[in-house]
């Protein structure tokens, strides 16, 4: 007892310097024990990957903020194989067999579905559920049922005249350049924003007509993905997130509010005035599929964010690969012109039957996916048989991983055509899921 008593007296009389040394010692011991646990005792310690990634999620966080996460994932998979531990509690998979297990229906196998990670998305400003960000499976199923008819083949055929109107304006603007250089990315953005606004609000923004009124609003939307990505990473470090939030410019919060307020205003105007256009709400209301107006506001914001820049980004990448592969471009032009010699021949049904066009688009998604990292899923509470832990599906890395595709860094649409005995016969085509997979795949895929 005497030594313990002496120790207590010693601490009571300790100087601030001794207290600081004691605190530093305890902190260091805690850090070392945490590192040792994660490297040697953690349930994922047997999976390959860099030791630093097993200890901390900071290396991946830095790569994400710098916009280099996809390249990092590919490098790790090339070094360590198809499954890599990329964080203390995270595994990345590029094996196509994992897609169904992670993203597909699990009831058939007796287990629950992998839930979408709620922390991956910022919720709607009004707190209402929407088709993209809601984590609850039952709520997602209800929303998908209400909106599914708006994204059906029948709806797409009804929307075709609207789409052709905006495409004609895009082509007219490009033709007016008369051979001068043009910023195709900007024009693709103008077209996708006009199309999605027409589908969501029954009124385009007029960007293809030269209307500059909504440029600030469009810029606010295009700036959102990067800001949301940085915020998602920093929220994983509570103290850092709290400290940095003290210095966040009001303009950033105002930009998010601007996007939201516009969506609310335009949806309310659409509901008040009515419309005979085949927009995204027409089918739902015709079938009396109930959806509270608050959820309509939240979904409208999602449609405008998810359906605009992503499409324009993919179109920009696809165009670049076509013009830098002139033989592929010429082959595609021949197929399209032979199938649609007149403008009125351009129909949804006819375009869907063009195999080489489909191959070019698929290869474009493989080489230049607009969402390079897939939304993570959380292992069910009772555990799952996939890596015994949380698995994040990386898209860009999967598409460039050599065991999955022959000549993975080359744009070769022919790999998507029937080719059971040729050079690309062993390509794992099923891993290409740019719209995700299973019950939560993108409702706007068509």
TrEMBL record:
<keyword id="KW-0349">Heme</keyword>
<feature type="binding site" description="axial binding residue">
    <location>
        <position position="442"/>
    </location>
    <ligand>
        <name>heme</name>
    </ligand>
</feature>
<dbReference type="InterPro" id="IPR017972">
    <property type="entry name" value="Cyt_P450_CS"/>
</dbReference>
<feature type="transmembrane region" description="Helical">
    <location>
        <begin position="20"/>
        <end position="40"/>
    </location>
</feature>
<keyword id="KW-0479">Metal-binding</keyword>
<keyword id="KW-1133">Transmembrane helix</keyword>
<keyword id="KW-0503">Monooxygenase</keyword>
<dbReference type="InterPro" id="IPR050121">
    <property type="entry name" value="Cytochrome_P450_monoxygenase"/>
</dbReference>
<keyword id="KW-0472">Membrane</keyword>
<keyword id="KW-0812">Transmembrane</keyword>
<protein>
    <submittedName>
        <fullName>Putative cytochrome p450 protein</fullName>
    </submittedName>
</protein>
<comment type="similarity">
    <text>Belongs to the cytochrome P450 family.</text>
</comment>
<dbReference type="InterPro" id="IPR002401">
    <property type="entry name" value="Cyt_P450_E_grp-I"/>
</dbReference>
<dbReference type="GO" id="GO:0005506">
    <property type="term" value="F:iron ion binding"/>
</dbReference>
<dbReference type="InterPro" id="IPR036396">
    <property type="entry name" value="Cyt_P450_sf"/>
</dbReference>
<dbReference type="GO" id="GO:0004497">
    <property type="term" value="F:monooxygenase activity"/>
</dbReference>
<keyword id="KW-0560">Oxidoreductase</keyword>
<dbReference type="Pfam" id="PF00067">
    <property type="entry name" value="p450"/>
</dbReference>
<dbReference type="GO" id="GO:0020037">
    <property type="term" value="F:heme binding"/>
</dbReference>
<keyword id="KW-0408">Iron</keyword>
<dbReference type="InterPro" id="IPR001128">
    <property type="entry name" value="Cyt_P450"/>
</dbReference>
<dbReference type="GO" id="GO:0016705">
    <property type="term" value="F:oxidoreductase activity, acting on paired donors, with incorporation or reduction of molecular oxygen"/>
</dbReference>
